[in-house]
Structure formats: C-alpha cells, structure tokens
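User: Here's a chain of 92 residues. Predict its fold as tokens.
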Amino acid sequence: MIELFGSQYEIIEDNRNAFDAEALEARYSEILKKYDYIVGDWGYNQLRLKGFYETTNKKAAYDSRINMLDDYLLEYCNFGCAYFVLKKIKEK
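Assistant: Prediction complete.
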C-alpha cells in the first residue's frame, strides 16, 4: 500500500519494475487526487503521471476511463515503456 497526500493506493500492475516511490512523490500533483487510478510511465528517464476514472463512471470522458489504458499506452507512451498502475483504495 502506498499513501500519497491523504489517499491510499495499491499497485495493481508494475510492468518492467517501473514503480519508483521517490520519483512518484516528486512528480505527484494534488490534481491526481480526483482520479480512481494513477498510471505512471517512463520515457527518456522521466516519469509521467496520468489519472483515469473507473470504467463505470458515466460522467468521465470515454478516453479517461481505465478501460482505455491500453490505447493510452499505445498512442501516448514510448513503445514498450515501463509503466505502473495504482488504484485508489481509501481517501482520508
């Protein structure tokens, strides 16, 4: 379990050992708190973070739902990049 600024997350995917707690804390922005998932991907030795909502969230834009993760990885990330997915499990 990971705690970030009052929210708790669990790692549900860690592709190619991408998760780095120090890099995540350094790059994390409170705007990500509103999302159900945080995806971190590595490109050119820099961590990028993107938020996604639950698939069942009808108010969320279609491409910001977690079921679109594969499309995001193919279109916006370096081919074969290391990435991780965190799921929010509790908010204080």
